[in-house]
Specification:
With 122 residues, the chain is mostly helical. It has 6 helices and no strands. The protein has 2 domains: 1-30; 33-121, no CATH class. The longest helix has 25 residues, at 2-26. The chain starts with a helix and ends with a helix.
Length: 122
């Protein structure tokens, strides 16, 4: 008799735990916080789109580490406006706009555009 009672207690405890876990997973915790205004993320995306990856308009920049000092100076001068906007973005709060959908990845692709900006900043 005591063994059946113990099984019932364990069963109900597991059911209660499963319900609590389902509630935590399925019920959102509240609205997403608002994006900062101005948002540094927007500045980074804009700067990344502005970066010119060629030095003279004819050749492509394959590896900035092979440029040498003068080549890096020319690259920095060419991308001075993009670097200025990136520095401005560093002075702002930054938050990536996140959506709970499969299409969210399209917004993340803007980060890939910022790849040249990261190379220019190094």
């Amino acid at each position: 008799m005591a063994q059946i009672r113990n099984r019932r207690v364990v069963f109900f405890a597991l059911v209660a735990l499963a319900l609590a876990l389902a509630i935590v997973i399925l019920i959102p915790f509240g609205p997403e916080p608002a994006l900062p205004n101005p948002n540094g993320y927007d500045d980074f995306v804009k700067a990344g789109q502005m970066v010119t990856t060629t030095l003279d308009g004819h050749g492509s920049l394959v590896d900035y580490r092979e440029l040498g000092v003068e080549g890096l100076r020319a690259f920095a001068v060419t991308n001075a406006e993009a670097l200025k906007i990136a520095r401005l973005g560093l002075s702002h709060r930054c938050r990536l706009p996140v959506e709970n959908s499969q299409d969210w990845f399209r917004g993340v692709q803007d980060l890939v555009v910022s790849g040249p900006l990261a190379n220019a900043a190094e």
